Amino acid sequence: MNSETPCTFACADNTLIGIHHAASNQQHIGVVMVVGSPQYRVGSHRLYVYLARALAAQNISVFRFDLQGMGDSGGQPNLFCQTGLEIKAAIAAFQHQEAEHQTTLDKIILLGLCDGASAAILYTLEDIQGLIMLNPWVRSQQLESKARLKHHYLPRLKDLRFFKRIFSKNFRFGQSIRGLWAHLNVLRKGDTLPTDDCGYYQDKMLKALQQFQGKSCFVLSTPDLVAQEFTILTTESLEWQAVMASPNVTCHTLADVDHTFSSMHWKKNLADILIEWCRKL
Fold first, then answer.
1. Strand order in the sheet with 29-34
2. What is the phi/psi pair of residue 131, to 5°?
3. CA dist list (Å): 276 to 74, 103, 106
4. How far apart are CA 269 and CA 254, in angstroms?
5. Residue 162: burial class (beta carbons within 10 Å; 0-12, 13-18, 19+)
6. pLDDT band, residue 158 (cuts 50/70/90)
7. What are φ and ψ of residue 48, in 5° steps?
8. HSE on the CB side for 240, CA within 13 Å?
């Protein structure tokens, strides 16, 4: 029987809370789940709860936790690019919980969704051996506009129903033209300077992955705007192409799946993919 144990741990001057999912027949592999803001340890549509229990049932221990200022954890919330100390503290707390179960983790994997995945990539210190990244966040003005033009506007030019709507009374012609022009204008001008402390975090993510010695697993939802932006980034850059082509990198693309894997069928399919990947780590 797998157990789920709440615990508290310190990060700087704050107390954070975590949930330890102990596997009954431990395979010395553990997963630390990094939540994207503004979610807490349950995850969007309870995704992290479902995945944690599915992994623990297959003898892979899991640790979920609330970042600072989220859920039941104290302190002020940080930007995703500033959560390294929190992730490190969670890993230490996870190892402590495993030690109490008389288990030593040989391999630790970070798992994250959206900017939680980006935070995991930016961490990539020597105390982890694997990364699982679900629809990682790489947004910039240029990438968003390219994705919307490619996946929203262009397909409509090939859709007869779109032209029928143009001549209907409900079609908002002015609004559509303004949206199209705004995205074209972004591509013409290029990205503006960063507006937050994360700066050009995509470059930092690239460097982190180039230096990471462990194995990585990307899972991308084809219809999702965030995943589309990531795909554009990785196909337009030779350096990103080299990262994605590495033998240490696995990439799964899932059709007709939303950003948060909200249906039970999608959660189960994702869990099966991750369990198989973890077993090969």
1. 3-11, 14-22, 61-65, 29-34, 107-113, 130-134, 215-221, 249-254
2. -130, 135
3. 36, 22, 18
4. 10
5. middle
6. low
7. -70, -35
8. 15
CA distance 245 to 152: 28
Q: Which amino acid does the sequence have at 241?
A: Q
Q: Which domains are delineated in the chain?
A: 3-139+199-279 (3.40.50.1820), 142-189 (no CATH)
**Residue 159 confidence (pLDDT) above 60:** no
Q: What is the SS3 assignment for 14?
A: strand
Q: Note the pTM of the prediction, 2 decimals.
A: 0.87
In 3D space, the residue among 36, 50, 6, 20 whose CA is nearest the CA of residue 274 turns out to be: 50
Residues 156 and 131: their CA atoms lie apart, in Å, by: 36
Tens-digit pLDDT profile for residues 92-116: 999 999 999 888 899 999 999 999 9
Decide the pairing of beta strands 61-65 and 14-22. antiparallel
Give the integer Cα–Cα distance in Å for 36 and 31.
Answer: 16
CA distance 40 to 43: 6
160 or 239, greater pLDDT? 239
- Listed in order, strand segments (DSSP E) in the chain are 3-11, 14-22, 29-34, 61-65, 107-113, 130-134, 215-221, 249-254
Q: Which residue has the higher pLDDT, 160 or 147?
A: 147
Sequence-separated (6 or more) residues with CB below 8 Å from residue 155: none
DSSP per-residue codes, 192-227: ----STT-SHHHHHHHHHHH--SEEEEEEETT-HHH
- 28, 104 contact by CB (below 8 A): yes
- What is the Cα–Cα distance from 251 to 173, expressed in whole angstroms? 39
- CA-based nearest residue to 85, from 44, 122, 58, 114: 122
pLDDT of residue 195: 52
